[in-house]
Amino acid sequence: MELYLEIHRDLSKIDTNPFNYIQCEALADKLPEGFVGPVPGAYQIVAGRLPVKEATNEQLKQSAIKALNNIIVVPKYFSTLLDHGKERLDRVVRLISTEVSPTIYHVLSYVHHDAIEVWQMPKNKAIHFLPEDEMKNIAIQFYECTKKYYSDESSVADALDTVYNGAKFFESVKLWFENQK
Predict the structure, then answer these.
(1) What would the pLDDT profile of 22-47 be if each residue is shown by its tens digit?
(2) CA–CA distance, 173 with 71 (Å, rounded to integer)
(3) Cβ(170)–Cβ(103) under 8 Å?
């Protein structure tokens, strides 16, 4: 417990703008089913030691194929757009953001030889390596909308633009991947 509190005190000194929070994960010595270990060079150990093996290139490639085969253009949580209230819309923006980023890396892991190198790239660089211009442009638009929304989190239009572009990104990825088979 003390370690969690100490880490939180340290993290609270970091300015997270334009986003809301820093996401950290405490790993057990056994990963959940279907998970791979952290990508070498793409994480920081804040305290302790890494209790699991790092991801391998093959694991990342297999994970990418599985994720791309199961991509959902309109995720179930979109139904909460029928609810009203700032917190509800914020949650949808957060959730789609946590799905768009890994999808970018899954696409790149599928097309590039070195998936570890792919996952080590920052998002703003990785986007430019997406295999199709339309997919790339939608991803760029998604992140522009996300940054605009998170600058003050008050615009419903900005939040909905983020959600719309996220869904369009999933749609472009799904179509692209189906054409790869």
Answers:
(1) 777 777 788 888 889 999 998 888 77
(2) 8
(3) yes
Residue 159: HSE in the Cβ half-sphere, 13 Å Cα cutoff: 19
The encoded tokens of residue 169 equal 């990104």
| Domain annotation covers residue 164 | yes
Question: Using 50, 70 and 90 to split pLDDT, how confident is the model at 18?
Answer: low
Number of domains making up the chain? 1
Q: Which amino acid is at 112?
A: H
Tell me if 27 is assigned to some domain. Answer: no
Residues 6+ apart with CB under 8 A from 106: 63, 64, 67, 68
Count, residues in the chain: 181
Return d(Cα 55, Cα 79) in angstroms, integer.
34
Tokens representing 49 are 């030691």
* Residue 3 maps to a domain: no
Domain extent at residue 61: 55-179
Task: Supply the pLDDT for residue 122.
Answer: 94
Measured CA to CA, the distance from residue 169 to residue 156 in angstroms comes to: 20
Please provide the DSSP assignment of 64-125 as one string.
HHHHHHT--SS-GGGGGGGS-SHHHHHHHHHHHHHHHHHHHHHHHHHHSS-HHHHHHS-HHH
Tell me what the mean pLDDT of segment 79-84 comes to. Answer: 90
